[in-house]
Amino acid sequence: MDLSSLYTDIVFEHDKRPLHAGLREPFEAEVHHVNPTCGDEITLRLHLGGDADAPVVEDISYDATGCAMSRASASIMSDLLIGHTTSENEPVAEHLDRVMHARGEEQGDEEIIGDAVALQGAAKFPNRVKCVLMSWKAYQSALIEARGALGWSA
Questions:
Q1: Taking every annotated instance into account, which residue ranges of this chain make up the domain NIF system FeS cluster assembly NifU N-terminal (predicted)?
Q2: What is the mean pLDDT of each run of 10 residues along the chain (154 residues)?
Q3: What pLDDT does residue 127 have?
Q4: Per-residue buried b or exposed e for 115-153, using 16+ beta carbons within 10 Å of the residue's own CB
Q5: DSSP the chain
Q6: What φ, ψ does residue 34 adopt, rounded to 5°?
Q7: Whose CA is closest to 30, among 143, 142, 149, 134?
């Protein structure tokens, strides 16, 4: 697989027309993550609703700079997770993480990760895995921070 196969039409579309981009209020948590390997950066805000027993991701807003894979991943992630409970989102994040660390040996299930299947080509390139997963790691950090800010247990 060459690098050109990484950049699918879906990746280009999310990179050119990112969903949910731009930092918005209200939010309970704001985190900043950097991939020192390539210089990708994301500032991500998370707004939760619902209650401690069933938190709902009401909004994910972000400002992302870096490669197309990184920016597309943030767009895809926010679109997949907004409107769902955090417990509904856990298997999505876990499946993508597993696929990305499988070095191309496991294919993503589109029923679970939607457009994120377009990112799985990066699994064969360890440095690109970090690009794809940076926004997902930022979301997980923000989720812990938001639950703490709301007085909900992590």
A1: 7-131
A2: 61 94 98 92 97 96 95 97 98 96 89 93 90 97 96 81
A3: 85
A4: bbbbbbbbbbbeebbbbbbbbbbbbbbbbebbbeeeebe
A5: --GGGGS-HHHHHHHHS-TTBS--S--SEEEEEEETTTTEEEEEEEEEES-TTS-EEEEEEEEEES-HHHHHHHHHHHHHHTTSBHHHHHHHHHHHHHHHTTTTSS---HHHHGGGGGGGGGGGSHHHHHHHHHHHHHHHHHHHHHHHHTT---
A6: -130, 140
A7: 142
Structure-block tokens of residue 9: 């039409």
Token reading at 126: 């360890």
pLDDT for residue 45 = 98
pTM summary value: 0.93
- CA–CA distance from 98 to each of 69, 119, 143 (Å)? 17, 13, 20
Task: Give the length of the chain.
Answer: 154
Q: Architecture of 3-149 per CATH?
A: Alpha-Beta Complex (3.90)
